[in-house]
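Page 37, continued from 36.
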């Protein structure tokens, strides 16, 4: 299998195996008018298996969304065919409009247009809580 190299774009590396489609959808990559390669179950010395996304265009990435979905992701920025920047992600302290509060009595269920804001309550267990009602969301 041959996947062309990228001239100018972004490579999302070290995605947990099987999560590349979730990342693809969350970032809205289907709306881009460029080549996007989804490479699944690649052998990795560090992880055993991993997924990789190659995006042949530069665009604004939401690092909080990426860090929430998978804090192991490495973001590689490619310009003129060369790696110019490499960023390691971590769990964001706060996420806005990434998840929706499931509590039907939460103010976000009643007030239309109110942002769904969650804060990181437990880093080790990846637990976030709604800022308004404290409802728990766990990201596995």
């Amino acid at each position: 299998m041959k996947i062309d190299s990228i001239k100018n774009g972004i490579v999302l590396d070290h995605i947990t195996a099987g999560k590349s489609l979730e990342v693809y959808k969350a970032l809205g990559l289907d709306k881009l008018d460029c080549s996007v390669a989804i490479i699944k179950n690649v052998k990795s010395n560090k992880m055993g298996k991993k997924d990789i996304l190659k995006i042949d265009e530069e665009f604004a990435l939401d690092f909080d969304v990426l860090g929430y979905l998978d804090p192991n992701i490495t973001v590689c920025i490619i310009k003129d065919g060369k790696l110019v920047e490499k960023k390691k992600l971590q769990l964001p302290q706060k996420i806005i409009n990434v998840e929706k509060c499931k509590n039907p009595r939460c103010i976000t269920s009643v007030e239309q247009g109110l942002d769904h804001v969650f804060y990181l309550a437990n880093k080790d267990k990846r637990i976030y809580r709604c800022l308004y009602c404290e409802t728990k969301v766990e990201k596995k």
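The two ends are 31 Å apart (CA to CA). Flag for discussion at group meeting. Strands lie at 9-16, 36-44, 48-55, 74-79, 82-88, 94-96, 117-122, 127-130, 136-138.
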